[in-house]
Amino acid sequence: MRTARVAFAGAVHSAVPHAQGLRLADGRVLGEAEVVWLPPFAVGTVIALGLNYADHVKELARELTLGARDEPLAFLKTPGALLGHRGTTCKPAGAGHMHYECELAVVIGRTARRVRAADAMAHVAGYTVCNDYAVRDDLENWYRPNLRAKNRDGATVLGPWFVDADEVPDPHVLALSTRVNGRLVQQGHTGDMIHRIPELIEYLSSFMTLTHGDVILTGTPEGVARVEVGDEVVTEIERVGRLVNTLVAEASHPQAATNPDRECA
Amino acid sequence: MTRILVISRPRLTVLRFDFAPFQLGGTVVSTLLNDPRQLQALGSAVQQAPYKAAPVHPVLAVKPRNTLVGDGALVTVPADAEGLELAASLGIVIGRTACRVPADCALAMVAGYTIAIDIAVPVQGHYRPALRWRARDGFCPVGPRVTPSSAVADPDALTVRTWVDGALVQAASTGGRTRGVARLVADVSDFMTLHPGDLLLLGGAYPAPRAAAGQSVATEIEGLGRLSLRLVAEEAPA
Lengths: 265, 238
What we know:
heterodimer; A: mainly beta; Fumarylacetoacetate hydrolase, domain 2; 5-stranded mixed beta sheet; 4 helices; 19 strands; about 40% strand; B: Fumarylacetoacetate hydrolase, domain 2; 10-stranded mixed beta sheet; globular
């Protein structure tokens, strides 16, 4: 079973795949471009993993201040960072090096507290695709990766479908890829994760209770590269989905000081 | 005064404010290293690896929903920690959507203020997000109520007092921060939109008090009430 959450004709609907695009719960069949795609489930805590593919660690080795780790590098996001399929993400004015990151997103379905790795998969509800952008110019070495680099509005894209765990019996046999304007730029395999999903759930649930809707973004393999305004970025994970995003220029936001029409309240 | 309704679920507490639009949405962002004395105490280490430079933008940490508890909570000290660090902080409750607001408009985005204690296991270093030390269950008590901003004349000049087992361990002010309330709201909203119900923590004064399992902690901020908690030892895993 795969489901999406979409906005259409003034309401938010649950939808399932259909040969012509998608079908709403009330039976209406719509094309993919006729709806606004939202993140495909009610998202709770967003936990992201950095440096969870050996090849990506090697790729970044020159700028890493510390070497190999024995503990997962996890960080958190706020709901404002989330965006749905076919949405647009701003490349901030002045940002040079901003790049995509194709990641398998693991959605928790059942409360997990002090769960052992051997039992962890029973707490997984399903999966979706994530494109978790980073603005590398904004990285600072205090609680790195800092929110300014990794928690921009609309820079964590999720979707299109929430895919039930029973459709993905083994989440570590999936090919990942990213295409920018149709050109293949990133290729990886979920079998190459340093910390695999059961181990991540054991680690995280050892100190924080995970609940329904919490999502673990499991990191990205090598092949990250700078993207520009106008680029179409397609992140795809075998059996899970194909997630489309387009980069747009930051709209001008006149500040009150220079815009006498703007009022504080 | 707004009361906070505490809805208990197994091992989780959901906090809500009981009148719109000040419902706490559950998004809590804490500011770290906002007392210049803390960076000063790090000395030349600030310029050395791994930091290599003083922070330019606000240093922030998300406190996820599993950390949120109300007044009177029991907070667990992990078995391998001698005690916990308790950063008693002004909690800034956002009332209006704030996207790139200039500092001179920022206070208009604030619905009110509350008390929050950003709890961490004391560890050396500020390089990594350190969820294992900062995002543990119960590590962000909030309460006991929200005081409307109209009742707070100057949020950057409030007395903050913390007691451990009844003994005063910190008497500080919300003032003297690298970024005061208005500048902080402005600088955070510069890159991430703040939404009504979001809670932004100003950050505690340096040095943060510490307490151990078995001790009771209370923080008062002038005009905002008193937030209490008790530290308990971790049970051995089943």
